[in-house]
Amino acid sequence: MHKGLILWMMLLFFTGQAFAQKINKNSATGQWLTANNECIVEIYEEGDKLFGKFVWFKEPYDEKGNLLKDTENPDPANRNRLLLGMTFMFGFKWDGKNKWTDGKIYNPQDGKTYSAQLSIKEPEKLHLRGYFAIPALGRTEEWIRYKSDNLPK
Questions:
Q1: From CA 90, how far away is CA 24, in angstroms rounded?
Q2: Are 88 and 50 in contact (CB under 8 A)?
Q3: Residue 73, domain extent
Q4: How far apart are alpha carbons 43 and 50 in whole angstroms?
Q5: Collapsed DSSP state (helix, strand, coil) of residue 4
Q6: SS3 of 124, please?
Q7: Spatial contact of 40 and 32, defined as CB atoms under 8 Å apart
Q8: What's the distance, Cα to Cα, between the start and end of the chain in Å?
Q9: Residue 69 forms beta bridges with which residues?
Q10: pLDDT value at residue 11
Q11: How many alpha carbons fall within 13 Å on the CB side of residue 28?
Q12: Do the Cβ atoms of 59 and 38 come closer than 8 Å?
């Protein structure tokens, strides 16, 4: 039984190492279905940083039948811009390991911008942590990589 435990631990260690080696600075790029299945976000690289924009909404219209707009923006000049296609994630830097740090994320629901970081925990799962001041004062969402068969109905 002792040999079996050691073998099992070695298998877990090497599986984790193999996964860690697959993560690179482009691992977060692509389309992601958000935790609440309400939208799809496209994360893309610009220069050496990552950005994200809204590319699909489950409910793209407000209660009046108009396309969703950035109505909570603190700048009145931006309150009529459409959410669809809007870049709301900015400046994430690859840390050389498994995180993209020093990013900002704009929340159109409250019109506020928060510090944020991204990480990949499994090949098809992205963790977005938005926070105020320090990461411990925040919230994490898990997004899954978008595939046509996981689009909500």
A1: 19
A2: no
A3: 2-150
A4: 7
A5: helix
A6: coil
A7: yes
A8: 48
A9: 82
A10: 40
A11: 31
A12: yes
C-alpha span between 84 and 55 (Å, rounded): 6
pTM of the model: 0.82
Domain count, the chain: 1
- Give the C-alpha separation, 40 to 148, whole Å: 11
**34 in Cβ contact with 41 (< 8 Å):** yes
Of 141, 134, 47, the closest CA to residue 91 belongs to 47
pLDDT at 85 over 50: yes
Angstrom CA distances, 123 to 3, 66, 83, stand at: 30, 37, 28
**What is the residue whose two structure tokens read 């790029």?**
29
CATH code of residue 76:
2.40.128.520
User: Which of 21, 4, 27, 13 lies closest to 119, judged by CA?
Assistant: 27
> Tokens 């991204």 — which residue?
118
Torsion 93-104-86-54 (CA) sign:
positive
pLDDT, tens digit, for every residue of 119-128? 998 889 999 9
